[in-house]
Amino acid sequence: MARYGMVIDLRSCVGCQACSAACALENQTPYWSDKWRTKVLDIQTGQYPNTGRYFVPTICMHCEEPACMTVCPSKATFKNDDGFVLVNYDTCLGCKACMAACPYGARYVYDKNDVRQAKEVYGEAAQHTKVHIDKCTFCQDRIALGMEPACVSTCPTLSRMVGDLDDPASAVAKAVSSGLAKPLRPDLGTNPRVYYIY
Amino acid sequence: MSSQKERNVAARQSTSSRDVEWVPSICNFCSTVCNVRVGVKTVNGKKTAVKIEGNPNSPLNRGKTCARGQAGLRQTYDAQRLTTPLIRVPGSKRGEWNFRPASWEEAYGYVMQKLQENQVQPWEMSMVGGWTSCVFYMPLALSFVFSTGIPNIVASPMQQCVAAGHFGNDMVTGNFNFHDEVLADFENAQYIIFSMTNSGVAAASTSRLVRFAEAKKRGAKVIVLDPRLSEMAAKADEWLAIKPGTDSAFFLAMIHVMLRKGLYEKDFLIKHSNMPFLAMEHQGMVVPMMETNEQGFPTAFWVRDQISGEVRKLPGYSNTNAVDVDGKNIVPSLEVPKDFEFNGQKVKTIFQYMVEQSAKFTPAWAEQETSIPAATIERIAVEFGQTRPALVDPGWHGARYENILNTRRLQSIVQALVGGFDVPGGWMMSGEYREKLMHFLQAMQKGEQVPLLSLPGLQFPLTAAGKFFDPREWSHGHPSFAMAKSMSDKAEGKPGIIFPAFSDYGLDEAVEGKLMFNGEPYRIKALIMNAANPVRHFYPESRWKKLLTHPNMALIVAIDIVPSDTAAYADVILPNQNYIEREEPFIYGAGPSTDLAITTRFSAVDPHPQTKGTADILFEFVIGFGALDKFMETISAFTGYDLNDIKAEVGKATKGEQSFTKAMRNVSFKHHANNLKTTPEKLEVRLRKEGVVVVEPKEKLLEHAAICRHLPVPTPSGRIEIYSLLLAGFVQQQGYRVNWDPGLVYFPPQVNQEKKPNEFFFTYGKVPTVSYASTNSNNPILMALSKNKEDEFMGLWINPQRANLLNIKTGDVVTLENCQSGQKAEIKAFVTEMVRPDTVFMSSSFGTENPLLKFSAGVGTALNKIVPYQVEPIVSAFRSQEFTVRVTK
């Protein structure tokens, strides 16, 4: 079984937000409430003329040791066979314990208003019909269809790569094993599957 | 391992792309024309577009698409879509949204009645086109005006962008493409310089981003000249916050250094440029020694052969200087000895004159102009000159300053110095351009005529626009109003505009009845607008609001998809199919793709029943004007399509058996199938499956159809023109003016340099989540993403050094006042270290007004509230940053 991981290359990201748009359309996330599964931070540092500007896409890290999962009282958060951290929308209580536990801020509430809006916008094709805590699924549905996640597939700057971390020949495994790509906050022991080149 | 129950849960969590059918299309959200595929499935019993992806077969965008491309499908489902023809309710004023639904017959009847009532003559009408008219309907739009006798097309984004930007580059390389231009080969370049561009790459042109990304990953060095830290500048190894409008000084200093240090491709300049041509001084001007034919085209040049030391004659039009008119191989000299004489004249080479002309443009001089340290300029010139492949991005945006055409021309000259055309890591010409060039050369040898739309590069706009300027081309003897205005300027001793192609120059006077031509008023009484939004996209908005509401304006027709700010000023609105719904009337070349490729759109979802494609609307107008036969003949003459095929297919359409769009599509498929030695049916199957068909890949084309190496370019001489013969022609026609100096020249931006603390240079630019150049602003997802970055995207960027002095904080509403024109606008401040202290910046494309645009109306500030009407004299490009602004809280 493949151990999927993602490498995000900050060297080429221009902050165009194609990933956010693709994700919103693919997963019907509530853009109307400014809630996104993946966002691109626009970080500005320094003083003119030594100013820096950095674009940093954020997303669920699909941790090997997900803090969000261990705290879930209803066991709605689980890892599937591919290791993607998912939420069972039917059993999620919406208690937000996972949101407090996640060190990466990767979760948000898909609330009553969002469910109503989703029905208005998407009609019978609405994917989200219940209040729940929402997060990235690594587009596991697309992965199952042999496609890349929507954010990876569309990225105009090829800043996102996806592949099998256990396959030494894969681009992501090479980036990780060479030390080029590094996880965020490895000190937390969450063991993320998303790595960054910066 | 997860449990069976968990597996079931996961399986239920579907994405939009599950079970969709992918239909190939072309994105319509910017002029990059990315190949996309639209995912459709049945929702609520209706075929619905649910997802867009880049087309993986695309040689342009390589399966990728930006936020605009992703979000574009929501336009189809805009709650305010125009779904039926609308006629203004009598008594209501233009600008008010007060229309009644009508049938198409009523709408056409209303138009014809108004034209008759007001005795509108053909030249008293103007088309107003947005970029889709240009990219997708050029054959129909041009044939429409020439068959109906309407000598006027006002088109955006010509004055706003294309005219000056492209023309500047193209004078050197001969290129021109009515998609967009050169696709620079970032992915193989080692050193890349960007100037005055953000939209062209980082914000965001996907076909360029996919290539630029490779450069970044590979570690190519990137230099960005920009007064602010744009998305593009954020990716630079060196961000040079240049003083606005002085980029040409930077490039002149680079040329100064590179010519003096020998940092150029000598062999390339000798063989493929006009640098070795002998020239002399005449009345203070450098003039090449040449012979010309009756039309003024060169028939011979002279060079000094290094080997024999003799002066040899070269053909007037050729790709190479290595063979003289007698077929002998020669090696022209870049320099001739001092006091060298030819035919009793003291002559030097163009190269020597360029060295002389660049003498004063030292890095120290450029530091004074640009505020970039001389040592930095010198170092970058040396690094650039010593690195291969080195690349200056061609740039995307013209306009802004009177000197922009010169700036883009100088960028091309720097690129020429490193021989960077049609080589890895250089500027790559499009497959379409090369194909047209090859056909043109073959036709020239056989003495045959080439259809207008097959003319290569610069010859197309020169010929096409030339027809609008020549009264003899029109049976009624009227040129375009813009040319009439220019002629009347000259009669009054004013400079006028040399080449007011698709320009609005003089439109206000024509509407007011003040423009005179041949002793009579040249009036404009009616406008037919297609996918155009001049109230937002032209400068300033007050000019257009005034002329649209002028009592002399008898009729305004708007063809559009959503109720734009301009549509509110129409008398008749004709609802258009959008790009996801419609089939295209033609097969197209794949934009600036370096592979020779063809593509088209397929209808992904059913159009609203009362909407029509533009092709159908134009045909129906033509029938109304009684010009159908002429229209078909003109289409055939311009495109090379078989006239009998056109008549047969259009005949079926007139009987109601098919749409006119379908008729033209059938003709186009047959034409291309013939060229490709296949059948229309097979071609259709293949295009439907793949979206894009590569006819000949770049690698093959470069083996036999590279410009310079194999093909002359469509400059007057066929060479890369460092000294511009086109500009020299302007000097001959019009007398000297610094704007059309054919050599190396600098003229600074005309802005107040002695500014008070609350007075700033003004700059504007694009963001990656707004669709410019179209009427696509009302997109809920793009608006959500833009609001997410409200400060950066909608704010007025102001440096804290000045903001603190003026007590301005982020979020404060400030008044922006144009110090020259007095125009005022309110905007929220964004206090940031990302901009020069003497400069403010704002994004364009926000601030729409029509309240029907639920998501975008009232969001942000419109650029054209602050930009005045001022144009430069070559192509009437807008000098849209050539002023200072006062900022007050």
Task: Note the topology.
The complex is a heterodimer of chains A (198) and B (889).
Chain A (H helix, E strand, L loop, with lengths): L3 E6 L8 H10 L11 E7 L6 E7 L8 H4 L6 E3 L5 E3 L9 H5 L6 E3 L1 H11 L9 E3 L5 H5 L5 H5 L5 E5 L6 H7 L3 E3 L10 E4 L1
Parallel strand pairs in A: 1-10
Antiparallel strand pairs in A: 1-8, 2-3, 4-5, 6-7, 9-10
Chain B lengths: L3 H9 L8 E6 L8 E9 L2 E9 L12 H5 L14 E3 L10 E3 L2 H14 L7 E5 L1 H18 L4 E3 L2 H16 L9 E2 L6 E5 L10 H13 L2 E5 L5 H4 L3 E3 L6 H14 L5 H7 L5 E5 L2 E4 L1 E3 L5 E7 L6 E5 L25 E2 L2 E2 L1 E2 H8 L5 H8 L3 H13 L3 E3 L11 H14 L9 E2 L2 H16 L12 H11 L11 H11 L15 H6 L3 E2 L2 E2 L4 E5 L3 H4 L3 H8 L6 E6 L11 E4 L12 E2 L6 E4 L14 H11 L3 H12 L3 H12 L5 H16 L4 H11 L1 E5 L1 H7 L20 H10 L24 E7 L14 H9 L1 H5 L1 E3 L1 H6 L7 E6 L5 E8 L7 E5 L40 E5 L1
Helix pairs in contact in B: 4-20, 4-21, 5-13, 8-11, 8-12, 8-13, 11-12, 22-23, 23-24
Walk me through the structure.
The complex is a heterodimer of chains A (about 200) and B (about 900). Chain A has helices at about 20-25, 65-70, 95-100, 110-120, 140-145, 150-155, 170-175, and strands at about 5-10, 40-45, 50-60, 75-80, 85, 110, 130-135, 160-165, 180-185, 195. A 4-stranded mixed beta sheet of chain A has the order 8-1-10-9. Chain A has a two-stranded antiparallel ribbon with strand order 2-3. Chain A has a two-stranded antiparallel sheet with strand order 4-5. In chain A, about 25% of the residues lie in helices and about 20% in strands. Chain A has a single domain (about 5-195), classed as Alpha-Beta Plaits (2-Layer Sandwich), CATH 3.30.70. By secondary structure, chain B is an alpha/beta fold. Among the domains of chain B are: about 5-75, Phosphorylase Kinase, domain 1, CATH 3.30.200; about 760-889, Beta Barrel (Barwin-like endoglucanases). In chain B, about 35% of the residues lie in helices and about 15% in strands. Chain B has 29 helices and 35 strands. Chain B is globular. The model of chain B has no long low-confidence stretch (mean pLDDT about 95). Chains A and B meet through helix 1, strand 2, strand 3, helix 5 and helix 6 of A and helix 1, strand 3, helix 2, helix 6 and helix 7 of B.
